[in-house]
Write the structure tokens for this entry.
Amino acid sequence: MKVEPIVYGDRKVYSVPAFSRGIASWLSRLPAVWVEGEVTELRRSPAWQTVFLTLKDPESGATLPVVIRRDRFDRLELDLADGERVHAHGRAELYEARGELSFRAATIERFGLGEHLAALERLKKKLATEGLFAPGRKRPLPFLPRRIGLVTGTDAAAKQDVLTTITTRFPPARIVVAETLVQGARAAAGIVEALQLVAGLPEVDVIILTRGGGSFEDLLPFSDETVVRAVAACPVPVVSAVGHEQDTPLCDLAADVRASTPTAAGKLVVPDLAEVLERLERTRAGVERGARRTLETQEQRLVRSHDRLRRAPALAVERKHARLEATAGRLRALSPRATLGRGYAIVRARDAILRSAAAVSAGERIEVEVGDGGFGAVVE
């Protein structure tokens, strides 16, 4: 719509709405541009169709209001926070009701450190979905590794910390060192190559991957996807000791064990020799005491067994004699002689035992047997 002024004689005067519409019309002819700044005053609500934020220049303090459609902002999945530096692409526009200049963004991208953080977060989610960080795939460290692999930077202080810790705690330890670049564009490929080389050496049972502290950019190679996958695929357990305790590169998540410092890594892979010897001495003494107690117990059992065997024949004869006496007593109790001894008699007639008075007649001769002998009789 064409903006027309109000004519007062030789003067053309625009109303406030007309002026704002005119400015808005001119702004709409400007091309879309990229604007850089730090995010501040981010405001978003599910009830709003628009997301509001302000871009601030950290040096001059200049600010620019920015608006973007909420559905478009949500699709970007930026999870922005105040202070992050971004690039916003869009056009300038004027809010006519208030005459306020703003910037309508079509898209927003992180820039610098924020961009790297966003990329790392996406990679972290991807690798976590594949299971590379799962606790179930973590392997325990060997108690006494035959050889220890150490992948580190050239002349790095971290390397010396690890070597000093290991040799102090366990002097017989055997260590193979692979030095490589640990920062810069070629570092990731060098780390992967060194890791695979050490893992392929005979008798290497554990590998320490380490470097000292540094800036966020310095530690980026240890979050490179190829390095993280190489750590996860390593055939022997890997201890990651990269940066300081507050640093957490992605290789820490893929490693079997994370150490807060290179010195802590050295303590993890070998035991303290003095403690091992002390433990062995306690174990030896315990085995000796146990063997002595066992021997004494067996000796006592042998003495008791010998005593039982010595007394066994006499006990057996006594038991047999007692059984025989018991049997004889039962036989005597059941013998007819015993019955006769108690005052009973056995009467026979015609060589048969009489069981009824009707079986004999008066004047018939009978034989009477009592306990101590017998005699003849005639029935009356």
Observations:
- Residues 273-334 form the longest helix (62 residues).
- The chain has three domains: 6-111, 118-274, 337-378.
- The two ends are 172 Å apart (CA to CA).
